[in-house]
Amino acid sequence: MKHAFAWLMALVLSAPITLAAEGKPMTTEQQKVLETITTMSSAFMAKDIDGVMATYEDTATVMFEPGQPVSDPDTLRAMFTGMSAVDPVFEFGEHEVFIAGDTALHITPWQMSGRAPDGTEIGQSGLSVAVLRRQPDGTWLMVIDNPHGAQLLASQGS
C-alpha cells in the first residue's frame, strides 16, 4: 500500500507547467495533456473521486504498486478513495510530453512528503509515466498510469 500512496501523489501535479521535451515551450496539445493531469490533481485534493475517475478511460490501467496493474474501475475507485485522506506536498521536475497521433506520453520526476492519517510522516519519490489517448471531443484521458517508472532502473542498479 505504501507504493499505492506514492502513485497517487505522483499525479497531483499542481506546479506550473511550461516546458516540453528538451526545454521547448509546450504546444497547445501538450498543454491539453497536462490539463488532464492537473484536473485529476485538483479533483483528488478536493476529495472528488468522481472527478478523479473522469480523467481516466473506463478501461485504464493504474500501477498502485510496482508490477501490479489494476484495471477494475471499482478497485480503482476504492484505492483513490482510501488515499484521499492524506494531504501531501509535492515537488516536480520538468515535465515531458510527447504526442504521436492520438497517443501521448507524459513523464515527470516527483518527490512527495505528507502525513498519513495516523500522523506518520511519509516521504517518497519516483518517476511518473502516463499514457493518454485523445478522445473524439479533443480531450485527453489517461489509459496507463505508472508512478513507478524508475523502478526498473532501480532494480538493475542504474
Automatic annotation (TrEMBL):
The DUF4440 domain sits at 35-142
- InterPro entries membership: DUF4440, NTF2-like_dom_sf
Q: Which UniProt keywords apply?
A: Signal
Signal peptide feature range: 1-20
Q: Which Gene3D superfamilies match?
A: 3.10.450.50
**Where is coiled-coil annotated?**
none
- Keyword Signal on entry: yes
Would you tell me the protein name for this molecule?
DUF4440 domain-containing protein
Which species is listed as the source?
Parasedimentitalea denitrificans
- Organism taxonomic ancestry: Bacteria, Pseudomonadati, Pseudomonadota, Alphaproteobacteria, Rhodobacterales
